[in-house]
Amino acid sequence: xxxxxxxxxxxxxxxxxxxxxxxxxxxxxxxxxxxxxxxxxxxxxxxxxxxxxxxxxxxxxxxxxxxxxxxxxxxxxxx
Length: 79
Hints:
The protein is of the alpha/beta class and 79 residues long. The chain has helices at residues 9-16, 20-27, 37-51, 53-66, 74-77, and strands at 3-6, 31-36, 68-70. It contains 5 helices and 3 strands, in the order E-H-H-E-H-H-E-H.
Protein backbone atom coordinates (compact mmCIF):
# COMPACT_ATOMS: atom_id res chain seq x y z
CA UNK A 1 0.00 0.00 0.00
CA UNK A 2 1.29 3.46 -0.95
CA UNK A 3 1.96 5.88 1.90
CA UNK A 4 2.22 9.66 1.69
CA UNK A 5 4.82 10.86 4.19
CA UNK A 6 5.60 14.43 5.22
CA UNK A 7 9.28 14.38 6.17
CA UNK A 8 10.89 16.88 8.52
CA UNK A 9 14.50 18.07 8.36
CA UNK A 10 15.57 15.49 10.95
CA UNK A 11 14.63 12.58 8.69
CA UNK A 12 16.83 13.90 5.87
CA UNK A 13 19.68 14.75 8.23
CA UNK A 14 19.57 11.19 9.62
CA UNK A 15 19.33 9.75 6.10
CA UNK A 16 22.49 11.53 4.94
CA UNK A 17 24.25 10.40 8.14
CA UNK A 18 23.49 6.74 7.37
CA UNK A 19 20.59 6.07 9.76
CA UNK A 20 19.05 2.71 8.83
CA UNK A 21 15.44 3.64 9.71
CA UNK A 22 15.55 6.90 7.75
CA UNK A 23 17.11 5.12 4.78
CA UNK A 24 14.41 2.44 4.81
CA UNK A 25 11.63 5.04 5.02
CA UNK A 26 12.99 7.22 2.21
CA UNK A 27 14.09 4.48 -0.18
CA UNK A 28 10.93 2.37 0.05
CA UNK A 29 9.37 2.66 -3.42
CA UNK A 30 5.84 2.51 -2.01
CA UNK A 31 6.30 5.74 -0.05
CA UNK A 32 5.75 9.15 -1.60
CA UNK A 33 7.78 11.70 0.34
CA UNK A 34 6.72 15.32 0.75
CA UNK A 35 8.70 18.04 2.48
CA UNK A 36 8.39 21.76 3.01
CA UNK A 37 10.61 24.39 1.41
CA UNK A 38 11.38 25.47 4.97
CA UNK A 39 12.83 22.02 5.72
CA UNK A 40 15.20 22.30 2.76
CA UNK A 41 16.36 25.72 3.94
CA UNK A 42 17.03 24.30 7.40
CA UNK A 43 18.91 21.34 5.93
CA UNK A 44 21.09 23.65 3.80
CA UNK A 45 22.01 25.58 6.93
CA UNK A 46 22.72 22.54 9.12
CA UNK A 47 24.67 20.58 6.52
CA UNK A 48 26.52 23.73 5.43
CA UNK A 49 27.74 24.34 8.97
CA UNK A 50 28.98 20.76 9.32
CA UNK A 51 30.24 19.88 5.82
CA UNK A 52 30.42 23.14 3.85
CA UNK A 53 28.18 24.93 1.38
CA UNK A 54 29.06 22.79 -1.66
CA UNK A 55 28.04 19.56 0.08
CA UNK A 56 24.95 21.26 1.43
CA UNK A 57 23.76 22.43 -1.98
CA UNK A 58 24.47 19.02 -3.52
CA UNK A 59 22.29 17.30 -0.92
CA UNK A 60 19.56 19.90 -1.37
CA UNK A 61 19.61 19.25 -5.12
CA UNK A 62 19.26 15.50 -4.55
CA UNK A 63 16.22 16.04 -2.33
CA UNK A 64 14.62 18.63 -4.59
CA UNK A 65 14.80 16.22 -7.54
CA UNK A 66 13.63 13.17 -5.58
CA UNK A 67 10.67 14.37 -3.54
CA UNK A 68 7.71 16.69 -3.75
CA UNK A 69 8.61 20.03 -2.19
CA UNK A 70 5.61 21.97 -0.87
CA UNK A 71 5.64 25.73 -0.60
CA UNK A 72 3.99 27.20 2.47
CA UNK A 73 1.35 29.72 1.48
CA UNK A 74 -1.21 31.66 3.41
CA UNK A 75 -3.96 29.40 2.04
CA UNK A 76 -2.08 26.20 2.94
CA UNK A 77 -1.52 27.54 6.45
CA UNK A 78 -5.26 27.56 7.13
CA UNK A 79 -5.84 23.85 6.31
